[in-house]
Design a protein that fits this description.
mainly alpha; 23 helices; about 75% helix; about 0% strand; globular
Length: about 500
């Protein structure tokens, strides 16, 4: 009787017992709305620029600024929303993201002039920077054994968003113009705001804050929906075993008066940021930044190369996603078909990610993507060029997907959203720099130099993956600073 009363179970054991069912099915749909909204708002940049330029007689610099401010906003938002969700809760972070993204997206369609459009697109970009928060939130509900496959499935929502946006542009832009495209493209963000009340708080976040009763209630609801049963005993949050004294503030806050509590909470908020540079996380953090930068640089670069080099006759023409000489229908059709290239890559990633691990999956797909680009060191036929670029994009989106699974798995709960958010911000810098470099090289007929640059970035990204200290396949999510590899080996043996 005594043993039964004192029996306990961890959050990860509870998640395994709950299993993956209808409860997580709703969560992946909601998180997927956020991913679709982000993908559509990024893809729309390829379509509205030329139309706005023509309507308002803008210069090329003014046109490019419409794109630049969105990425600049995402750079700010990726860190900001991670900070909010790590310190004030996942739900509050998701609500703020939904309000900012949907509001700015809808208002952009009614912009009376260029300045208002730029400002609203920038604000919308800040909201779109919250994409990693959806990722981290959903991850914290998924049982460890099935985490890889379900995170890959979650990543398909991004591809769905790119395909849907390309299709909408193909149908809407030639007939109704850019304002209607902006308005209709805001529907996923509005849906995320509309259904927010049904969003539960992350039980892992609640356990970290000592709110095990609230975490238990959510897990109990999940078990009822999934028709499963929680383990018998008492739910315990993982014990804080790290040596950093800053982590003690998390527990101390629960025992202090409200006024003192706020001061300690603020101090703890900043201490969580510095945890990214602790002895156990510093190497991982910098390697992750380099990986996200290289992945974004390669991914967006290959999209641009696909648009330019798939036309064998246009090797040395101006580098632009939407050329003035192409018909509208042909442009939107080509972008639509290009987006479909990501689906086989996601299928391949889902097949290997839980079989050979996160690190080996990324290493293999970086290698295959590298090989697919090699023939383009010299000018090839149109068909061969298209096959080469499509193949490369298939596997680079695969590495992008697995990196977004690995990043939240490697960080502890206290800094998960912040760490992934900052890494995503570094990736945005790669996305911003890539067009500038690639445009200048290809427009000056330096195709070989451009391909060499992308190949070097892919090699460096693959080396970063090899240097990561941990494999996270089927590993329980950490709530505190993870142990060093040496300590980990001692525990295993």
């Amino acid at each position: 009787m005594m043993a039964e009363q004192t029996s306990t179970y961890t959050l990860d054991e509870a998640l395994v017992a709950v299993g993956f069912g209808k409860f997580q099915g709703w969560l992946i749909v909601y998180a997927g709305l956020g991913s679709i909204a982000e993908a559509m708002e990024v893809m729309i940049l390829s379509f509205i620029g030329p139309s706005v330029k023509s309507e308002w007689n803008l210069s090329s610099t003014e046109e490019s600024l419409i794109t630049t401010v969105v990425f600049a906003g995402m750079l700010i938002g990726a860190y900001s929303w991670g900070f909010v969700s790590d310190n004030f809760g996942r739900r509050k972070g998701l609500l703020s993201i939904a309000i900012v993204t949907s509001g700015a997206s809808v208002l952009s369609a009614f912009s009376p002039n260029y300045i208002s459009l730029v400002v609203l697109r920038c604000i919308g970009g800040i909201g779109l920077g919250g994409g990693p928060t959806y990722n981290s939130w959903f991850l914290e509900f998924v049982p460890a054994p099935s985490r890889g496959i379900w995170m890959v499935i979650f990543s398909t929502f991004w591809t769905v968003g790119t395909i849907v946006e390309a299709f909408l542009a193909w149908i809407i832009m030639p007939r109704y113009g850019w304002r209607w495209l902006l308005a209709i493209s805001s529907i996923p963000a509005l849906a995320a705001l509309l259904f927010y009340k049904l969003v539960p708080e992350s039980p892992r976040y609640l356990c970290l804050k000592g709110q095990t009763k609230e975490a238990y209630d959510i897990l109990k609801q999940a078990s009822m929906v999934n028709q499963s049963q929680l383990p018998s005993g008492i739910l315990l949050s993982d014990q804080i075993t790290g040596s950093d004294q800053d982590l003690d503030a998390v527990e101390d806050t629960l025992l202090l008066s409200p006024k003192r509590n706020k001061k300690i909470a603020l101090k703890t908020s900043f201490s969580t940021l510095w945890m990214l540079f602790s002895a156990n996380l510093c190497k991982t953090t910098f390697l992750l930044w380099m990986l996200f930068f290289g992945n974004a640089f390669s991914y967006y670069g290959i999209i641009l190369l696909t648009s330019e080099l798939s036309n064998g006759d246009n090797v040395c023409t101006s580098f632009n996603l939407l050329t003035a000489n192409d018909s509208d229908d042909a442009i939107y059709r080509d972008v639509f078909i290009t987006s479909l290239a990501e689906l086989p890559g996601l299928v391949f990633a889902s097949f290997i990610v839980d079989r050979i691990g996160r690190k080996h999956s990324m290493e293999l797909m970086f290698f295959i993507g590298f090989v697919f680009l090699l023939p383009l060191l010299s000018v090839q036929s149109e068909i061969f060029t298209m096959v080469s670029l499509f193949g490369s994009r298939m596997f680079i989106i695969g590495t992008f997907t697995v990196a977004n699974i690995y990043a939240p798995e490697i960080y502890p709960t206290a800094v998960r959203a912040t760490g992934v958010g900052i890494a995503s911000s570094v990736g945005r810098i790669g996305g911003m720099i890539c067009p500038l470099v690639a445009v200048s090289l290809v427009s000056e007929c330096h195709q070989t130099a451009a391909i060499i640059l992308f190949e070097v970035v892919i090699i460096l990204s693959g080396l970063c993956v090899m240097l990561f200290p941990h494999e996270t396949m089927a590993r329980e999510l950490a709530d505190t600073d993870p142990v060093s590899p040496k300590e980990e080996n001692v525990d295993v043996n």
